[in-house]
């Protein structure tokens, strides 16, 4: 039996309220009749939580279109796409597609001069936005018009001038792709696994920069190529904990964006500017430049949201950084108290957050509540992280989420459950090759813990403390302590003191967030 396609259902469910409203107006203009069958079918599908074609056919029993429902669904699908395209063309900050289409229409009408006039505008906007393929598309149309008009002078100008301009654009585009490739080669492993934790990984990364092209930023021939250069350098130094080098490259990248006119910082550039501010904050935090980090948060929240997606992104990313700031300074209870309104509003934005950012947010909220002694709330957040279906990104956070899960159950006194979770966590980390020394030390203790006496527990904490403290000097193993402050937690157990108190004392961050 043929499986019913869910493509139309998923498309309808992806639409915003504004897009749905526009579709109904669009459909009423493009289909003869008032309440036409396409709008009726649209509404019926939209009301379903899960697509049920049997119920659809029952609802419209007796209507002719149900006999070939697949044909009606295909037409409705195309109609929705047409309305979406027109809706977003009207809203788009990139006028190029409309300009080029208008130039083509005018050319087909024989209005050549008007077509050429619009091509000039299209060329201008493509060059301003570094859309090199769009620039080449304009050259192709100019060349087409020259031949259509039998314009000998125009053809000579193309041979002597415009041809070389096309080649220059191709070379700039090639240069852009080469710097994008450098960035992606560094970014992909980090996105999947997190930081470098082996000497071999570091060597692979460092070799990427040996290419003569990547030795000097002046070899980058466009704004975006320079951005990729700084971002690649930043990410490399970030993974080997060279914080001052990280800071230098990210400050230069942020400055690139802030030197643009506000009108130029739109679309992709706006999104990349936001990412740059976020990365700059992360480095400022590593260097304990907390006040500078707070200034970046204010910059982020001052950016006007041009869409609901951007609004959600700014909301969640800026607050995630604020959570991170409370964690980094050990001020867990202040964070939990100050972020109550954020947690209340989070449900309105969650669906629009990318999975890797959602995982990071859940981990930070679990850690924040753990530090504040709110273990039930911490467990709620860590369960949401562990229930995430996408394990292709941020394996590092997912893995440390499992470690944090163990500590939460320890604090809750779930000894019987803990014994089972330790075994499953060990298998998971071993299978994914994420089992490093810090995790092994923790698992070794917790595996034996349920059978320990109070005296043995204290001895186990001392042994853990000694072994983990030694790892803080290891270039690769020290990365584990950026995810969780094992040392402060163990000190709090050995000295029978509050985790937050010890965290603030060890960091010297008593008054940094007054």
What is the element layout, followed by pairings?
Elements: H1 7-14, H2 17-30, H3 37-47, H4 53-59, H5 69-91, H6 96-108, H7 112-128, H8 132-148, H9 152-193, H10 199-208, H11 223-239, H12 243-258, H13 268-286, H14 290-302, H15 308-328, H16 332-338, H17 340-346, H18 355-371, H19 375-386, H20 395-412, H21 415-431, H22 437-448, H23 454-471, H24 480-483, H25 486-494, H26 499-507
Helix pairs in contact: 1-5, 2-5, 6-7, 6-8, 7-8, 8-9, 9-11, 11-12, 12-13, 13-14, 13-15, 14-15, 15-16, 15-18, 16-18, 18-19, 18-20, 19-20, 20-21, 21-22, 22-23, 23-25, 25-26
Give a brief outline of the structure.
The chain is mainly α and 514 residues long. It has helices at 7-14, 17-30, 37-47, 53-59, 69-91, 96-108, 112-128, 132-148, 152-193, 199-208, 223-239, 243-258, 268-286, 290-302, 308-328, 332-338, 340-346, 355-371, 375-386, 395-412, 415-431, 437-448, 454-471, 480-483, 486-494, 499-507. The N and C termini lie far apart (66 Å).
């Amino acid at each position: 039996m043929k499986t019913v396609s869910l493509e139309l259902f998923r498309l309808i469910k992806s639409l915003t309220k504004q897009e749905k409203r526009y579709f109904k107006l669009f459909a009423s203009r493009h289909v003869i009749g008032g309440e036409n069958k396409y709008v009726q079918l649209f509404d019926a599908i939209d009301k379903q939580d899960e697509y049920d074609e049997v119920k659809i056919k029952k609802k419209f029993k007796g209507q002719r279109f149900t006999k070939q429902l697949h044909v009606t669904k295909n037409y409705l699908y195309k109609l929705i796409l047409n309305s979406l395209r027109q809706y977003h063309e009207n809203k788009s900050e990139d006028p190029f597609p409309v300009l080029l289409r208008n130039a083509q229409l005018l050319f087909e009408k024989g209005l050549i001069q008007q077509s050429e006039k619009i091509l000039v505008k299209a060329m201008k906007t493509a060059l301003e936005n570094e859309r090199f393929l769009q620039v080449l598309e304009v050259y192709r149309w100019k060349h087409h018009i020259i031949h259509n008009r039998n314009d000998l002078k125009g053809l000579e100008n193309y041979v002597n001038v415009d041809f070389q301009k096309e080649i220059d654009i191709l070379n700039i585009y090639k240069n852009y792709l080469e710097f994008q490739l450098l960035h992606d080669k560094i970014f992909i492993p980090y996105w999947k696994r997190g930081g470098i934790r082996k000497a071999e990984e570091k060597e692979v990364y460092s070799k990427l920069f040996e290419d003569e092209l990547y030795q000097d930023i002046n070899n980058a021939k466009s704004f975006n190529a320079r951005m990729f250069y700084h971002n690649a350098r930043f990410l490399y130094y970030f993974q080997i904990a060279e914080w001052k080098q990280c800071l230098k490259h990210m400050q230069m990248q942020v400055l690139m964006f802030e030197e643009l006119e506000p009108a130029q910082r739109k679309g992709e550039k706006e999104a990349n500017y936001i990412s740059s501010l976020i990365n700059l904050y992360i480095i400022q935090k590593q260097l304990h430049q907390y006040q500078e980090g707070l200034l970046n948060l204010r910059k982020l929240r001052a950016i006007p949201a041009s869409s609901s997606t951007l609004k959600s992104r700014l909301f969640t990313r800026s607050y995630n950084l604020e959570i991170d700031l409370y964690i980094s300074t050990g001020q867990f209870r202040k964070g939990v108290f100050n972020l109550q309104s954020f947690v209340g509003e989070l449900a309105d934005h969650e669906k629009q957050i990318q999975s890797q950012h959602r995982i990071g947010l859940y981990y930070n909220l679990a850690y924040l509540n753990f530090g504040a002694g709110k273990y039930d709330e911490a467990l709620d957040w860590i369960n949401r992280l562990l229930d995430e279906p996408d394990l292709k990104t941020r394996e590092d956070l997912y893995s440390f989420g499992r470690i944090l899960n163990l500590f939460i159950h320890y604090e809750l006194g779930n000894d019987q459950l803990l014994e089972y979770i330790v075994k499953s966590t060990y298998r998971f980390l071993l299978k994914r090759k994420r089992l490093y020394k810090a995790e092994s030390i923790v698992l070794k203790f917790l595996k034996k813990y349920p059978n320990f006496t109070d005296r043995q527990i204290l001895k186990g904490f001392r042994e853990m403390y000694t072994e983990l403290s030694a790892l803080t000097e290891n270039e690769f193993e020290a990365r584990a302590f950026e995810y969780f402050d094992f040392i402060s937690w163990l000190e709090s157990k050995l000295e029978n003191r509050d985790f937050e108190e010890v965290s603030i004392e060890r960091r010297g961050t008593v008054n940094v967030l007054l």
